[in-house]
Amino acid sequence: MDMSSPRAYASPILEPSEGGGEPVLTWAVAVAVVAGLSLLAALLFQVVQQQGRILLRLDGIEGRLRRPDPGDGLQVAHHAGAHAADGVEHADPLGLPPGTLVAPFALPDLDGRAVRLEDFRGRRVLLAHWSPECGFCDLVAPELAALQHDRRDTELVLVSWGDRDANRTLALEHGLDCPILLLDGAAPPEPFTDMGTPAAYLLDEDGRVTRPVAIGADEVAALAREASRRRTRLRTEKPLHESRIERDGLKAGTPAPAFALPDVRGGTVALEDFRGRRVLLVFSDPDCGPCQDLAPGLAALDREHRDDGLQLIMVGRGDPQRNRAKATEHGIEFPVVLQDRWKLSKEYGIFATPVGFLIGEDGVIERDVATGGEQILALARQGLRKERTDGRTTLR
Question: Does the predicted TM-score (pTM) go above 0.85?
Answer without folding.
Answer: no
